[in-house]
Amino acid sequence: xxxxxxxxxxxxxxxxxxxxxxxxxxxxxxxxxxxxxxxxxxxxxxxxxxxxxxxxxxxxxxxxxxxxxxxxxxxxxxxxxxxxxxxxxxxxxxxxxxxxxxxxxxxxxxxxxxxxxxxxxxxxxxxxxxxxxxxxxxxxxxxxxxxxxxxxxxxxxxxxxxxxxxxxxxxxxxxxxxxxxxxxxxxxxxxxxxxxxxxxxxxxxxxxxxxxxxxxxxxxxxxxxxxxxxxxxxxxxxxxxxxxxxxxxxxxxxxxxxxxxxxxxxxxxxxxxxxxxxxxxxxxxxxxxxxxxxxxxxxxxxxxxxxxxxxxxxxxxxxxxxxxxxxxxxxxxxxxxxxxxxxxxxx
Length: 347
Known about the structure:
Blueprint: H1 2-8, H2 21-26, H3 49-63, E1 89-94, H4 100-110, E2 115-119, H5 120-130, H6 132-139, E3 144-148, H7 155-170, E4 174-180, H8 191-199, E5 207-212, H9 232-244, E6 249-253, H10 254-261, H11 269-272, E7 278-284, H12 290-305, E8 309-314, H13 331-344
Parallel strand pairs: 1-4, 1-5, 2-3, 3-4, 6-7, 7-8
Helix pairs in contact: 1-9, 3-4, 5-6, 12-13
Organism: Cnuibacter physcomitrellae
Keywords: Cell cycle, Cell division
Pfam families: AFG1_ATPase
């Protein structure tokens, strides 16, 4: 097995990446799959009118910058923007895969001047890596800050972001945020928005709350399954096939990778996977430690954003969050990670 692994030529556990404040700021852009995202390329599901309503509101928000123009063609080319938004922030509350990140990226592309786009975890990682004062200094003066997947799980992180957004908004920075609501959580439809308003009451009046419903466009929700190969030998064989095709493949033991993630600040995970096309994990086992599980969620987010394939053996990755984790306070994080693992775990 050692010889075969060396043939692939890379292990993530051998990497100890570093990243500077400038480099961290440069990573705060929409994920590569949303490089070309625009309002014209968003396709609302006619079975869910809230998607068209969300599109209209995001167009109106962009129009208030005075930079959003009609293309004169396409599906929405004849639609006139509504009156400019009256609040400096907009918040999209909805389920997985309904286009929230697409709309947020489109809004970011439409924003003038210096702007930043990142997940809630990335911003808290930025503060953790730089310190609060330096993070504020870095972000101050931006025209627009986009926060994807706003989290309410950790009161400390939530209030940290509340304070940060409040300081930025007071200087004229405009804000937009999204949050996930599980598609099968029938009674929780407005949970995220209600908690968001309560937790950031100091700046709540700066946000328009926009509800967006629908079905996961990947059609791979928690009822789907991540592909699991029969054993480690099958993973290595598949890894070699990808490597022979010119792709950069990293092969690691799942247990070793999880342990290694604990030695690296989450802000550096993006560098850990830099240049990798395929991640091969052998002997996946259920995670029983909450801290390990949350680190793995942050890692999965970076892998998914980079559109990296995952090959794996052992426990199917959609079943990696063991015990009562899926029913606890971090349920939404784990559900999002499961959706992304199902989309990423392929052959």
